[in-house]
């Protein structure tokens, strides 16, 4: 017959082994996908983003600073408009009326001959005369090429241009007119206040005072030369008609 304490040890061992089996046989917790939490977070963020947040109150600028900001905005808009208009007008400047809205009413135009035009009215008259002259003497085969650059430091627009004028006269030789137009902009309004023509060449011959753009084109067409080698003749009056 076994001792009493042996029975107790056997019963204890059986209970311990049974608890171990139950622990391994118990069902595991269901598998939870990794992305489940991220989807929930995404839904939460989406819900939060749908909530309308109150608009921040705009603090007005002091009158002086607001005035400077408005002037700068107007200047930038007018500079952009001036560049767009000049780029568009230069393509047909020989025959089509340009847009004069970018020019200041007191604009000053300076020709290599020294002729100065003051005011928008005289500037318009000069263009009308120039285009009438071109249409009368030269054919539609005439053309113009140009390159435009904006000078931020000097607040100016520079256009280098080359014009090829084909005469209507039979066997007439084409005229090549090169020059640079400087358009000075007002630092506040952005309007063009000065148009200056420099580095004028006709058939690679430099133009010097007292001859200007309009007179030289007409004189070279008639092949009349002065003793100094600069074209002269009835076209000299065309430069003075704008004074």
Describe this entry's structure for a reader.
Keywords: Signal. The chain has a domain of 159 residues: Nuclear Transport Factor 2, Chain: A (Roll), CATH 3.10.450. Strand 6 and strand 7 form a beta hairpin. Helices cover 40% and strands 22% of the residues. By secondary structure, it is of the alpha+beta class. Strands 1, 2, 3, 4, 5, 6 and 7 form a seven-stranded mixed β-sheet that branches.
* Broad shape: elongated
In what range is the share of β-strand residues? 15-25%
Just give the CATH class of the domain at 63-221: Alpha Beta
The CATH architecture of the domain at 63-221 can be named as Roll
Classify the oligomer: single chain
Q: Helix tally?
A: 6
Radius of gyration: 43 Å
Largest sheet: 7 strands, mixed
The overall pLDDT average reads 73
Helix amount: 40-55%
Distance from N terminus to C terminus (CA atoms, Å) equals 147 Å
Order of helices and strands: HHHEEHEEEEEHH
| Sequence stretches where pLDDT stays below 50 over 5 or more residues | 220-243
What structural category arises from helix and sheet content? alpha+beta
Number of strands: 7
CATH topology of the domain at 63-221: Nuclear Transport Factor 2, Chain: A
